[in-house]
Amino acid sequence: METEVVSELMEHLSDKKLEAALKVNTTVRAAMGEFLRDRGFIEIPPVIFSTVTDPLNHPVYDPSFEYEGTRYALTKSMIFHKQIIVQKFPKIFTFSPNIRLEMPEKARTGRHLLEFTQLDLEVKGATREDLIKLGEELFIHTLEKVIEKHSQDLHDLGRSLSVPHAPFKRYKFEDAVKKYGSEFETILSKEAREPFWIVDIPLKEREFYDRESDVSSGILNDMDLIYPEGYCEALSGGEREFDLDRIMERIRRKGQTYEQFKWFLEFARGGLELSTGFGIGIERLVRYICGFERIEDVHPFPKVPGKVSV
Length: 310
Ligand code: AMP
Ligand code: MG
What we know:
The chain has about 300 residues and is an alpha+beta fold. The protein has a single domain, classed as BirA Bifunctional Protein, domain 2 (2-Layer Sandwich). Helix content is about 35%, strand content about 25%. The protein contains nine helices and 13 strands. The chain has an eight-stranded mixed beta sheet with strand order 1-6-8-13-12-11-10-9, with helices on both faces. The chain has a three-stranded antiparallel beta sheet with strand order 2-5-4, with no helix packed on it. Helix 2 (about 15-40) runs antiparallel to helix 4 (about 130-155), helix 2 crosses helix 9 and helix 5 crosses helix 6. Adenosine monophosphate binds near residues 234, 236, 281 and 283.
């Protein structure tokens, strides 16, 4: 078993496709960091484990451990840490390593790893509209830099890529479901030639911490960016709930316990203000740019759901 896993890894590490992906990855991270720093964002270090992490809205195995009598979990996302720190520093970002022990069947999608990195950012006092605009500008800037630096690599990969035009098209979640059914994201992504947004996401589809619209009950001020050409979801984001009573009510309606989020609730009791943010998966972005079928081809040490890896 060890011999097979290691020889497969050695072969993967010598793959020209991986080399191109890692070069693109280097430019993507630099371009994104530069874009955000130029706009006054500060970079915070990642949180690798914590007393509180993202509950997510889909089942995963839970890696947690006890240290000196306190329970910690590996970070699934830095949502709570973002919401807390943005109260003091109004524009923050981080390259956040996330561990999500996805069910083995997720390997089929070609876009799930057990360990990946999000560029995760948050802005105090901003609305979803502000973050949609920021997201479009960030995406365009990143693609421009990649195309400028890697036209030869993209050519060698047989990938033709163009810079999309803002504003990106938008679909409301419920309209898209009505028109295309539950597989709307895949259908629309396959049809599209440019990235687009899914907005106004129903409450049951997302975690408790995103803010419900004041005008449309049951609808969150959330957005997903979807890649064209069938590459599906690029990022998720939204306005965050800041009202303690509403936060508690949402946890209760999810059937979750206050105990699970007590560390966050303690901060929320001190008062939160509105913030909005999003997280964009770096490996998925590099996969899209390189035009790869499978996400593991962009990572030197990929952790594929259901597979033993080094
Ligand atoms: P989420 O808030 O759960 O939508 O996660 C934010 C972003 O991280 C997603 O839009 C993806 O780009 C990326 N992401 C989430 N889960 C995974 C995964 N298992 N493997 C790779 N990327 C992921
Ligand atoms: Mg998502």
